[in-house]
Amino acid sequence: MKFNLxxxxxxxxxxxxxxxxxxxxxxxxxxxxxxxxxxxxxNLNYANERSFTYLIQPGDNLYIKVVSLDEKTATLFNPLxxxxxxxxxxxDQGIYLxxxxxxxxxxxxxxxxxxxxxxxxxxxxxxxxxxxxLDQYLKETVLIVxxxxxxxxxxxxxxxxxxxxxxxxxxxLFEAMAMAGDLTEFANRRQVQIVRQTKTGSEVVEVNLxxxxxxxxxxxxxxxxxxxxxxxxxIKQFGFAAFPYTLIFSSxxxxxxxxxxxx
Length: 263
Hints:
Layout: H1 2-24, E1 61-67, H2 71-75, H3 79-84, H4 92-97, E2 100-101, E3 107-110, E4 114-117, H5 123-134, E5 142-147, E6 151-156, E7 162-165, H6 173-179, E8 187-197, E9 202-207, E10 227-232, H7 245-262
Parallel strand pairs: 6-10
Antiparallel strand pairs: 1-2, 1-5, 3-4, 6-7, 8-9, 8-10
Helix pairs in contact: 1-7
């Protein structure tokens, strides 16, 4: 009986090791993006509206700068230059504090022109509207209009969670993941939640980054103040991303030595 027990120990040890490898490791297919089971040879095309159509809402901040040959008159429209003396060393806080805040009624207070309604207009439409007003006071002007408070919040199973500022007109989900250092091995790529502000509250949408058709989703391109939350996989409680071969082989060696010793 004792001899049979020692003969079975290596087999039991091998079975336990195999089970540990099978149940504790994250499968590779769960760490891949843009999978397509029906993919054939050649390229796949996914249509998506790339244009940035965010509409200005109350609480947004607009950076507006007027460039003209008449510097003294143009300074009246540029509060940022009045406070910095025209210097170019301006930080994000300075731009925010000297930007035009959209009121609850959807207006901004613009010098000489008074209240201008900008709610439900995109940045280009706001620029055209203000340009028409400027033409009444200045000739040969160049107008710069940008949205200041374009923030994204990325939480959950990413390497660098936090809030990120975006200095471009549009950004997609994968670009946001790259800013946060990419997803961890335990990230659930099938259940990525996007929390988006709406007129009536907050909207929560769940997208699947494993499927290639995410490229044609209405939520592939993000909007200002979106929050992205990546859930962990259940295996994170007891699993590991990379199998500890050194530990397992050393344990097997120790067990075999003990078996030979007791024999």
